[in-house]
Amino acid sequence: xxxxxxxxxxxxxxxxxxxxxxxxxxxxxxxxxxxxxxxxxxxxxxxxxxxxxxxxxxxxxxxxxxxxxxxxxxxxxxxxxxxxxxxxxx
Length: 90
Hints:
The protein is an alpha+beta fold and 90 residues long. It is built from 4 helices and 3 strands. It is found in: Mitochondrion.
């Protein structure tokens, strides 16, 4: 799909055709971008990545805990009750 879209945009550029983002609508069922599955309703982590994350060892030092919390902040939209869980770790 990316190749087709690129070709279409190149033709637009060659023909001097301009499109406004406000008047443009792109439809896709779902797409995989940077390890996340995106559809028209939500963004979710791929199940395989989620399994890998859940197998991580619990941090043993304060430095490891800080790295773990920073990593969790990156994934916080996928973690229910994230704020409460982080408070329990502190």
